[in-house]
Amino acid sequence: MTLALLAGLLLAAPERPVIDLSGGRVQPLPMAIARPYPALETSAAVEATLVQDFDRSGLFKLLDPASFLTPANEGFTGIDFSKWQAIGAQALVKMDCQSLPADVKCEMRLYDAARGQELLHGTYTAARTAPRQIAHRFGDDVVKFFTREPGVFQTHIAWVRETDADKQIMVSEWDGSDPQVLTGGSINLLPSWAPDGKTIAFTSFRGGAGAHLYTVDAISRQVRPLALMGDFSTGAIYSPDGTRLLFSSSQSDNTDVYVAKADGTGARRITDSRGIDISASWSPDGKRAAFVSERAGTPQIYTMAADGSEVRRMTFQGNYNQEPAWSPKGDLIAFSGRDEHRVFDVYTVAVDGGKVTRLTQNQGTNEKPAWAPNGRYLLFSSTRNGKRQIWMSQPDGSNQRPVTSEKQGASDPAWGPLPK
């Protein structure tokens, strides 16, 4: 793939289209995605994926192709920007794809429709069996251009598929497409990605000795034990630098949070209070962790230093708060809490100030929030349509979209790292 950024006049021009991420809700940028010409099967797949990526992102307002005023064969030269301006387009995407013997090759271009200028262009190649990757890669380039932050279209997510016989760790693209089974034959729960994206830790009942920790290689699918200590060990999560693990384990009828090396060795208990301490989540700098504790009588969200010191209570509303997930941006901790109707919903609490924001309500049971690696989206499980499925939203609860549609249900989402 080659990519050209017209960095001179365009990047210097303050009037160029931007997407402001500094405030609350994002104002989507009006965009037109021109129909590929000629209309090939592979180019249609690229277009459809790009439309879906941009639509689900919440960053763009995609204009209806039925409103387009230009002919399908307009191409890259002689573009009549006045007709794109007339339908309200501020950004314009055009593509030209060719099917080669083994590959798909697409020339992709992004324009500032209001000023009639090219912003990005590049040639992207992918295997003929994977034309979606072209859309994901170009889409991430577009997002980074407009926001100065990385996009998530090339990322993968892990989650649990529920079946009549077992619970399987799955991995799929960010939107739930192309799901692949990584484990089976037991009850497998709570996947968590290593920062390099090659390994997933999970909790499993395999072996018949209660729940303990294992890893699975995301490519080879080889499963290895990680931590088999105590009556059970659960909820492993890697530190941001990949050198350490946090997890919970029960020994002598006491459940606490432990820290260990990434391979599970050298485990050391870092909480020691009456009641259960569980469900730890690293801060993005690896210096602190959020966790759940019953030390005040009901499950609440706390934070502590990575060695267990400097404990601070974060939630005071509600009598059952659980499953903290610290945002990669560091400003929010997402969690699920039980409301007055005894139903769980997803919330965030501000690390500074403690402001609590409710993201879901009157939409079934919503649990297990998990952040995108850029901190701009959340995954969570929801029963709003019957069986539990994975959903996504933006951090303020807007733009909620389904991710999975599994027959028996899906749960325990975990978002993988950005591609290297």
Report what the structure shows.
This protein is mostly beta strands and 420 residues long. It has two domains: 2-147, Rossmann fold; 156-415, TolB, C-terminal domain (Neuraminidase, 6 Propeller). Helix content is 10%, strand content 41%. It has helices spanning 9-12, 41-57, 81-86, 132-147, and strands spanning 2-5, 29-33, 60-62, 91-99, 103-112, 117-127, 156-162, 167-173, 180-181, 188-193, 199-204, 212-217, 223-227, 232-238, 244-251, 254-261, 268-269, 277-282, 288-293, 300-305, 312-313, 321-326, 332-338, 344-350, 356-358, 366-371, 378-382, 389-393, 401-402, 410-415. α2 packs parallel to α4. It is globular and about 75 Å long.
CATH architecture of the largest domain: 6 Propeller
Number of strands: 30
Number of domains: 2
CATH topology of the largest domain: Neuraminidase
Provide the structure class.
mainly beta
* Overall morphology: globular
- Termini distance? 15 Å
